[in-house]
Every structure is written in structure tokens, then in C-alpha cells.
Design goal:
The protein is an alpha/beta fold. It folds into two domains: about 160 residues, Rossmann fold; about 325 residues, no CATH class. It contains 15 helices and 18 strands. It has a six-stranded antiparallel β-barrel, surrounded by four helices. Strands 2-1-3-4-5 form a five-stranded parallel sheet, with helices on both faces. Strand 1, helix 1 and strand 2 form a beta-alpha-beta unit. Helix 1 packs across helix 5, helix 5 packs antiparallel against helix 12 and helix 8 packs across helix 9.
């Protein structure tokens, strides 16, 4: 996915002058070897400069990690550490940074004792004094192997931070009528470092027709046909869809400006079908499959949420309606007694057909059944339909409230291997205590019906990333386990 940043973490060991610098240097070498043994060596760079109580050494280390292409920083307290120099290093490094500390190692508690456990407290205090935001793991002191795991856990956080700092959201058109739920102030985008370009759908319509007869259409049609295979049930639609895909890709290249990464909040109804004579769902799914998320219904924060999920998972994401309950008869026949979920733990996640074909069982080209109730059938062709593949998921969303508070939710669960017997891109979802989560987080905190989906359990990384980019932990909602009540929950129910 070339729309997601590649992270290279510069590891800088720090040492206070009344402690042996060799202690920090040697521990750094062991840490780097532990990381290389377990993970990809290209993710990290070992800075040879060991900072003592010297701002000059800090500058040398800063220049070194920059010169070696590092876009993230790990400050490693090999011993107590120089609280001023190490936090100045973090302050002046332009990118995400983390702090970890070395646990005592070989039992030598005379000349071999580093006291980094103590030093981490001073580091955190000095970071606050300088208003420096840094990622500190839940328990930031460990062996070389444990610190290597902490650095690896930092990678998705760093991808989100770097990605957002270089992201442009491209939107087309205002939200459709009766879609205030997806309308939110863009002020928080700028607070996150994100740029936005808002365009008229007329601009998109003009750009589409400027691609009439584009010589690249035929080869893209063949690519689509190969992807769909037996699901290519409406081959006559593919030239239109290929022309639209080229329109979006060319628009990205012409409009992303100085930004490296993009996502799109697209218009898809009501005038889209009557003017373009198709729906854009399959094209949206294909771009999302390439790491360029495209949200439906000009859902700007939905697109942003999808992009964050793409950075965290390095995988395809999707955007779905938290749509309908599972019929009682379906629950009784296929779920009850087979899985440890109550009926209220289950629901159906659905959208018209925007999920990448790689995440759909038996994907096939089809029409948008809801829109076809009011429009000619041929105007609504272009969805990619099928039941979503079963497996682990993380359902989540980042949202600005109307008064510009940044708020998020997340819940881990799974898509069950239960046939939906319905249409669109749809799956039977199960999330522990979903009923209570639905009432006391989703409804109470005024979230819209669109939720983003990562295909795997990524709650830990997502929570850390949201904290790092500035979402208050009090504004991050998650599904409370049974027996743990929400503040507003009626204790007598």
C-alpha cells in the first residue's frame, strides 16, 4: 500500500554523566539485536551517538537520525538519562516519538545499575514541562526483548501520526439531504494536521467526461474482469466504472499538492445515478483495496477513520452502516448455542457494495437495490455484493462533534460464518455486550450510523494511536464487559 507511510525508527540511547555511558551503549546494542532477531531490521536505525548531559550531543543525535531517514524516534533510557537533553531531542524531532527504559539486567547492582526506572519519571515530567507529546507504553521499562516488542507496537501509532501529518482528504459535493449525521465541522481536521479539499460534484462530473475515450479504459476493464472472475455478471458496466476510476486516480495526482497521502469522501446519491448512470461502489472498493479509502455519502470523518485503520492494520478496511438487528429466528437457528453471544450482542453491518472483493465471499457485480426502488435499474448498477468474510474485526470511528470535540469509539468482535440471506456487502457481526455499547456509547455520544471496520483485532494499537494524536481518553468509548456499568446506565435494569 503506497498510500501509507513506511516507518523507520531511530533508536537513541541516552546516558547521564554520573552513570557509565557504556551501560547505555551496550544495552542499546542488545536492544537492536533483539529487535532484528524478531522483527524487520529495516524498521529501525541504531544511532551511534550516546547523549550525556550535553545539548551538543543532542544536536548530533538529532542530525544523525534525520540524515539516516528516520521519521520516528525512540528515546531509550539505557540508564537514568539526562532529563533536559533527552526531552529537547524529542522536542526538536519532527515526527512521532516514544520513550522506553531499560530494566536492570545481569544482577550487578553496583556499577551495573542504571536506574532507568527512576529516570523515566523525570523524563515524563520534563516532557510535560515542554509540552512535548510522546508515546509511553503501558509499562515502559523492560528487557531488551520486551523493549523490542514495545518499539514494534509503536509502529502503527507512528504510521497514523505521520500519515495524518501528510494527508489530504478530497471530498465531492455536500452531504445528501437527510444526512446531517455525516456532517461534522472540519476544524478538527486542521487540528490533526490534515488538509481537506472540498469540490463540487459538478467538478467531478466534468472530469469524468473529460475521460471519455481514454485509451487506458480497455486495460483497466480487463483488470476488473480478472478481479471479478465468475462475479463479472454485468460486463457491460465495466467501461463506465473504469472511466470513473481513472477520473478519481487522475484527480488525486493533480490535486494532492504537497501532500503524500490521500483519501476520498465521495458523493454517491441522489443525483449521481441520474447523471453518471451507475453507482460508484465497486470503484470505491477497488481504491480502498489499494490503500486509498473512499467513504460513501461524503462522510469526511468516515474517510479519515478508514485511513487511520489502513495505517494501523496495513490492510484493507471498509465503511459500513450499523444497520439492522439479526432476526430472532436466524439467531436461534445459527448462533444460539453455537457461539457465546446473546441476541443483543449481534447485528448486521451493511453497505451498498463498497467493500473490497478480497474481504467478500463470492463477490459479484450487481445493482443497488434500495436506489432501484425509485430509479431505473440500469442507473443503479455498479455495486460489489456478497457476504463479508468471517473472522475477527475491530469496529471503530473517529468523529468531531458539532461543537468540535474530537471523540472516538472502538470495539473488537467478529463476523460470524452465518449466511445473511440479504443484499449488498453485509455480514452478521457479534460484539460482546453490543446492546449496552449501542445504547450508552453510540446513541448517547451521538455517533452517526457509519462505522469503519478493520479485519482483525487492533484495539490496542488503535487506542494508543488515538491517544497519541490528541483524543482525550475520556472521549474514547469502548464496550464495557458484563458487570461493569456505564456512568449513565440504569442500575436497576
Amino acid at each position: 500500500m503506497n498510500n501509507v507511510p513506511q516507518i523507520k525508527v531511530g533508536i537513541v540511547a541516552v546516558s547521564r554523566d554520573c552513570f557509565p555511558a557504556s551501560l547505555a551503549n551496550n544495552r542499546r546494542k542488545v536492544l537492536v539485536e533483539a529487535y532484528k532477531h524478531k522483527y524487520n531490521a529495516d524498521d529501525i536505525y541504531e544511532c551511534p551517538v550516546c547523549i550525556i548531559e550535553s545539548e551538543i550531543d543532542m544536536v548530533k543525535a538529532l542530525e544523525d537520525v534525520k540524515a539516516n531517514g528516520c521519521n520516528a524516534l525512540c528515546v531509550y533510557l539505557g540508564n537514568f538519562g539526562p532529563e533536559i537533553s533527552e526531552t529537547l531531542l524529542a522536542k526538536h524531532f519532527d515526527g512521532p516519538k516514544m520513550f522506553v527504559a531499560a530494566a536492570e539486567g545481569d544482577g550487578d547492582l553496583y556499577d551495573g545499575r542504571g536506574d532507568a526506572f527512576c529516570g523515566m519519571l523525570n523524563a515524563s515530567y520534563n516532557l510535560a514541562l515542554r509540552n512535548v507529546r510522546a508515546y509511553i507504553p503501558e509499562y515502559p521499562v523492560g528487557t531488551a526483548e520486551e523493549c523490542a516488542d514495545m518499539i514494534h507496537d509503536f509502529l502503527p501509532v507512528a504510521r497514523v501520526a505521520v500519515g495524518l501529518s501528510q494527508l489530504k482528504v478530497i471530498s465531492f459535493g455536500p452531504r445528501p439531504l437527510n444526512f446531517l449525521a455525516c456532517n461534522a465541522p472540519i476544524k478538527q481536521l486542521y487540528n490533526l494536521g490534515v488538509e481537506i479539499e472540498e469540490n463540487s460534484e459538478l467538478d467531478l462530473f466534468e472530469a469524468y467526461h473529460n475521460h471519455d475515450g481514454d485509451k487506458r479504459i480497455d486495460s483497466l476493464v480487463q483488470e476488473m474482469a480478472n478481479e471479478l472472475g465468475a462475479g463479472n455478471t454485468n460486463a457491460g458496466m465495466l467501461p463506465k466504472l473504469a472511466q470513473y476510476e481513472l477520473t478519481l486516480l487522475d484527480w488525486i495526482e493533480a490535486h494532492k499538492g504537497y501532500r503524500k497521502f490521500t483519501c476520498i469522501a465521495g458523493k454517491c446519491w441522489p443525483a449521481f445515478q441520474t447523471q453518471f448512470h451507475f453507482v460508484p461502489c465497486y470503484v470505491n472498493s477497488r481504491l480502498t483495496g489499494r490503500g486509498i479509502p473512499v467513504s460513501c455519502e461524503v462522510d469526511i470523518y468516515g474517510a479519515l477513520s478508514e485511513y487511520i485503520g489502513t495505517c494501523i492494520s496495513n490492510d484493507v478496511v471498509t465503511l459500513l452502516d450499523i444497520n439492522n438487528t439479526v432476526p430472532r429466528a436466524m439467531y436461534d437457528e445459527f448462533i444460539k448455542g453455537k457461539y457465546s453471544y446473546k441476541h443483543t450482542d449481534t447485528f448486521m453491518g451493511f453497505h451498498c457494495g463498497n467493500t473490497c472483493s478480497r474481504k467478500v465471499c463470492n463477490p459479484h457485480l450487481d445493482f443497488q437495490r434500495i436506489m432501484a426502488r425509485n430509479l431505473p435499474r440500469e442507473f443503479t448498477d455498479g455495486t460489489i455484493e456478497g457476504d463479508l468474510q468471517p473472522g475477527e474485526i475491530t469496529f471503530y470511528r473517529l468523529q468531531s462533534t458539532a461543537d468540535t470535540i474530537l471523540r472516538a469509539y472502538m470495539a473488537e468482535g467478529e463476523i460470524l460464518p452465518v449466511a445473511t440471506k440479504s443484499f449488498g456487502g453485509i455480514g452478521v457481526f457479534a460484539i460482546p455486550e453490543m446492546g449496552r455499547f449501542y445504547r450508552h456509547v453510540l446513541i448517547e455520544k451521538n455517533y452517526p450510523h457509519h462505522g469503519a471496520v478493520m479485519f482483525g483485532h487492533y484495539g490496542k494499537a488503535l487506542f494508543n494511536a488515538l491517544k497519541y494524536i490528541g483524543v482525550s481518553t475520556s472521549e474514547i468509548g469502548y464496550n464495557q464487559p458484563e458487570g461493569v456499568r456505564y456512568p449513565s446506565e440504569n442500575p436497576f435494569c
